[in-house]
Amino acid sequence: MEKVPSLAIILAGGEGTRLRPLTEDTPKPLIPVRNKPVLAYIIEELEREGISDVLISIGYKGEKIINFINSLGNHPNIKISYIMEEKALGTGGALRFAISKARKDYEDVFVINGDDLFTLDLASMYALHKREGAFATLAVKQVQDISGYGVLEIKGNKITKFIEKPDTSLMQDKSGTINIGKYIFSREALDSLPYLEKFPLEKGFLEGAVSDKKIIAFESKGKWMPIDTHERYKNVIEFWE
Questions:
Q1: Is residue 103 pLDDT above 90, yes or no?
Q2: In a domain, 30, yes or no
Q3: CB-CB contact of 88 with 15 (8 Å)
């Protein structure tokens, strides 16, 4: 068995509306952190983790991401390619479109969002995925404040429920476990994606599968910092190392 999935798909087509005006001329994956685009950090992490093939699904300001990819030069240990979404497809639609264009010899695929910085023990996550015979495995984290996030209900290591973003204004304990947008999908899961043009990955697919499929939580001990709001971007600029 491979130590990690050979293929990773980066979902990088979103408009980043909550980060405007930063994203008016720059796609969110190219926003700089210490003079280096977010996407560069992501590719470096995938290469460190042993991923050999990366497919980037692009849309908004996609030509700028293409120019960035072309500027990377030779990466002998990793193949980087891209596909262009002609229209916004949502995370689920983008994944289904990417899979339709990807090479067909994959068994499991690592799927990530293109708008955060992270480190991840992917080999351990993949070992859990295979050991459990999982339909899908999600990297999760315990956070002190779940404001703005959906929350997971987990029994043992099995995800049993996806909970909408709660109103935390009256909650004393705001801690909880969240999905951090790092997935390993089995071939069965990818073949089960709905034939819809546009749908969100979590609400449009995983929520419907959780009752009768084994969706496993992998608690990541690595770093994770999202860049989806101005406040979180400011935190990344200040604290990412």
A1: no
A2: yes
A3: yes
pLDDT at 192 over 70: yes
Size of the chain, expressed as the number of residues it contains: 241
The 3-state secondary structure of 128-165 reads HHHHHCCCEEEEEEEECCCCCCCEEEEECCEEEEEECC
pLDDT, average across residues 82-104: 86
**177 SS3 class:** strand
The structure tokens listed for 216 are 């496993």
Residue ranges making up the domain that contains 79? 7-138+179-215
- Burial of 172-184, coded b for 16+ CB within 10 Å and e otherwise, reads eeeebbbbbbbbb
d(CA 28, CA 6): 25
Note whether residue 165 is domain-resident: no
pTM of the shown model? 0.91
pLDDT of residue 173: 61
Please count the CA atoms within 13 angstroms of the CA of 34 that sit on its side-chain side. Answer: 10
Say how far apart CA 158 and CA 121 lie, in whole Å. 19
Cis peptide before 21 (omega within 30 of 0): yes
Tokens of 47: 């290469």
Helix (H, G, I), strand (E, B) or coil at 226: strand
Instruction: Find out whether 55 and 96 touch, Cβ atoms under 8 Å.
Output: no
Task: Give me the CATH number covering residue 61.
Answer: 3.90.550.10
pLDDT digits (tens, 9 = 90+) for 15-58: 778 888 877 888 889 999 988 999 999 999 999 999 989 999 99
Within-domain flag for 98: yes
How wide is the angle at C-alpha 215 spanned by C-alphas 213 and 220, nearest 5°?
A: 175
Q: Is the dihedral of CA 82, 215, 4, 1 positive or negative?
A: negative
